[in-house]
Write a structure and sequence with these properties.
By secondary structure, the chain is an all-alpha fold. It has two domains: about 120 residues, Alpha Horseshoe (Serine Threonine Protein Phosphatase 5, Tetratricopeptide repeat), CATH 1.25.40; about 90 residues, no CATH class. The chain has twelve helices and no strands. The longest helix is centred in the C-terminal third of the chain and has 30 residues. The two termini are about 20 Å apart. About 40% of the residues are buried.
Length: about 220
């Protein structure tokens, strides 16, 4: 699956920029756990962004590991590792890093989205779609998850599978078919924000039972 077709949440999109600052010194702490724990959050964040911008994935991974050593309960430290590991093609390790992120912050839809990407790139399309689904369920207006879910569904099931799912949705509830088509198919292709906004408005009007029924039909579609 072409990676460029799917949305990867970057640190630049997730982490606050903070005030302008001189380049962070990254060496000299060694194994000093106390020094790692004392390092301010803003410093960890700024340098993580800098390493990502330079595409220094080995450096970003080392930085994320040090961050987790100093603050193992910080979900962002694990997100950083997942980001670096995925870029290095180490998808099973990226999956575990994002899963640790989610153990610490179960509602983190950004980690769920990137977990889906790691599953997808590791060849597990169903696990990827389940992760995207969880992100979309937690944050219905998080269109990146819908985009990724729709494209993965299409590339996994093909046009025939998409048509069968839409037929079943229309037969059950035309609103469900309209939402799925707009958010996960039309928006995924056009990236037209108006399409996404209109679909999200309809989605918010659906009951939890309706949304559950929609996902049930989609995940049962052959």
């Amino acid at each position: 699956m072409p990676k460029r077709l799917l949305v990867l949440l970057t640190l630049s999109a997730l982490l606050p920029a903070g005030p302008a600052a001189a380049e962070v010194r990254t060496f000299g702490l060694g194994g000093d756990e106390a020094a790692l724990a004392a390092r301010p959050q803003a410093e960890w964040v700024r340098h993580a962004r800098s390493l990502e911008k330079r595409r220094d994935w080995a450096g970003l991974l080392a930085w994320g590991k040090d961050w987790a050593r100093g603050d193992p309960d910080n979900a962002l430290a694990w997100f950083v590792q997942g980001r670096a590991l995925a870029e290095q093609g180490r998808f099973p390790e990226a999956i575990e890093a994002y899963r640790q992120n989610l153990r610490l912050a179960p509602g983190d839809v950004f980690a769920l989205n990137n977990l889906g990407n790691a599953y997808r790139d590791n060849g597990d399309s169903r696990a990827a779609m389940l992760a995207y689904r969880a992100a979309a369920e937690r944050a219905p207006d998080y269109v990146a998850a819908w985009h990724n879910l729709g494209l993965t569904f299409y590339l996994t099931k093909g046009e025939a599978g998409v048509a069968r799912a839409l037929d079943r949705l229309r037969a059950t509830d035309p609103q469900l078919a309209a939402v799925w088509h707009a958010l996960a198919l039309e928006y995924a292709i056009t990236r037209d924000e108006r399409v996404a906004r209109d679909a999200v408005r309809v989605l918010r009007g659906l009951s939890r039972a309706q949304r559950k029924r929609m996902f049930g039909i989609l995940f049962d579609a052959g």
